[in-house]
Amino acid sequence: MPKKILVVEDNEKNMTLLRDILTYHKYEVLEAQDGQTAIKIAREQKPDLILMDIQMPVLDGFTAAKILKNEAQTKDIKIIGITSFAMKGDKEKILEAGFDDYIPKPIDTRLLPELVKKYLA
Q: 4-120, what's its fold?
């Protein structure tokens, strides 16, 4: 049974890129365009991993990750932040917010599968 990965991304081009990479590597991809929808899907589908954009409409990634990490049913799901924030101190801020790791944009298409594999091992 393939591992389920929830991709939370409001940019269609980024969503397509992530979907293509993950399906190529035989993962089942669940999709959400905002944090609120991501929380609903995470509660219902219990993905093995979440790749979450930080800046999104409705509910941002910081808030959605905090909610998921504070709920018994979703607290153990690993969440990797995806962000265009790549300034000094941003990685620390993202990790302090409850994310397990982060990937800067533009997405490194060689690094992504390795990082996903690491968290699903």
A: Rossmann fold (3.40.50)
